[in-house]
Amino acid sequence: MVGVNIMANKTKEDKYRFFYPPEFEKMIDYLNKNGKFTASFMINTGCRIMEARGFIDTPIFDNERKNITLIKTKVRARLKEKSPRARTIPVSKTFFYQLKKDIVNHRILSTNAFNIALRKASMEAGIRNYEQFSSHNIRKTSATWLLSLGVDGFKLAKHLGHTPNELARDYATNDIFNHNDKQIMRSILKDLPERIDIRAR
User: Fold this and answer.
1) What is the pLDDT along the chain (201 residues), one digit of tens a residue?
2) What is the dotted CATH code of the domain comprising 15-198?
């Protein structure tokens, strides 16, 4: 019956749940090559999976500033957008160079394939409520970690393609991480928090 739960299209009952850093480290070990690539892209950018897939289709690297441009983004109806707007975001220098290398022989999984892989990996890692996880939980995790590491909420909202009100409603979380958690976050995100905060908007 476990396989049925993993395969099913689940309602996002737990969409506000994020990974604690040790959970994320355990979970990613159980993913295959493309699953790892997908999870790594999302945690290091905070983007939606369809934005990640759009980037792989049309990769735009700013070699000077170490930014990437997401062409396929979500239309923000509340801001009366008629069509998606490209979003240029900073990434850590380490991830920037790794991405340029990995993009040649890796791919971003489809939403359904990644959700299945994520639930299976989370189950094998012993993470609670694994059957309710989806790619959105990686985006939630990225935002939560960045807020915890002191990134300005207004700048983070722009980074994610949100309004500040949406960030406060959907992503803001009390700082419940300990010193070890934050060390793991920084080992994964590298200099991304500083790059978001100092970037001229």
Assistant:
1) 444 445 444 444 466 789 999 999 999 999 999 999 999 999 999 999 999 999 999 999 999 999 999 998 975 545 555 677 899 999 999 999 999 999 999 999 999 999 999 999 999 999 999 998 999 999 999 999 999 999 998 999 999 988 777 777 776 677 889 999 999 999 999 999 999 987 533
2) 1.10.443.10
Structure tokens of 17? Answer: 């749940």
Spatial CA neighbour of 159 closest among 200, 188, 196, 198? 196
All structural domains of the chain with their residue ranges: 15-198
Beta strands in the chain (DSSP E): 61-62, 67-70, 87-90
Q: Which two tokens stand for residue 134?
A: 């989806």
pTM value?
0.88
